[in-house]
Design brief:
Blueprint: H1 2-12, H2 19-26, H3 30-36, H4 40-52, H5 81-99, H6 104-116, H7 119-141, H8 145-166, H9 172-186
Helix pairs in contact: 1-2, 1-4, 2-3, 4-6, 4-7, 5-8, 5-9, 6-7, 7-8
Length: 190
């Protein structure tokens, strides 16, 4: 179901990826979709959870970041500046890679946009999607909630803005620049 959803979003765009079109692509009845997901937004949130999976916060070397959220045995305040920076870099590169996958960035931007005027979807997106990643980052970095939310806003907002303005994910060169900018601000604990 998730693959059919993301394929449909990729092929026709988020706005035209109706539940009816998604169900047809999955080879099931629309009513079957609505039995599990009451809205398109709820389906998309679950697709994003599946596409992103757990955050790779178990290792602080971006080349070996294969752990899962909360897998870091040291608290963020015990991490040195280099380790914190490496953890932040691996997270930025991970989310940039996920947003660049076919259908994922479009689905993320679309549901994010819909949530602006839909309080129920906004709550679902925050509680099911953002909060688990925020909590994992707070634990890994030893940072307060507002600072971690600012980190998420800066990174995700920048990546989605680029996707929305160009129709393409951010280039590797620009991801490098984003990493450098964010690392300067977040490398040391507040």
């Amino acid at each position: 179901m998730y693959a059919a959803t993301l394929r449909t979003v990729h092929d026709v765009g988020y706005a035209r990826a109706t539940v009816e079109r998604i169900a047809a692509a999955a080879g099931i009845a629309k009513t079957t979709v609505y039995r599990r997901w009451p809205t398109k937004g709820a389906l998309i949130v679950d697709c994003l959870l599946d596409a992103f999976g757990p955050a790779p916060l178990g290792a602080t070397d971006p080349g070996t970041a294969t752990g899962t959220a909360g897998g870091n045995t040291e608290s963020g305040t015990d991490l040195g500046s280099a380790e914190r920076g490496a953890l932040i870099e691996s997270g930025i590169r991970w989310i940039a890679g996920r947003i660049g996958q076919p259908g994922v960035g479009d689905a993320f931007a679309g549901v994010f946009s819909d949530a602006v005027s839909d309080p129920a979807l906004r709550e679902l997106l925050a509680s099911r999607f953002q909060d688990p990643y925020r909590q994992a980052l707070q634990e890994a970095l030893g940072e307060p909630e507002q600072r971690v939310l600012f980190l998420i806003d800066t990174v995700v907002g920048t990546l989605l803005h680029r996707l929305g303005m160009t129709g393409e994910p951010m280039s590797d060169t620009d991801v490098d620049a984003l990493v450098a900018m964010v690392r300067r601000f977040f490398a040391a604990p507040e």
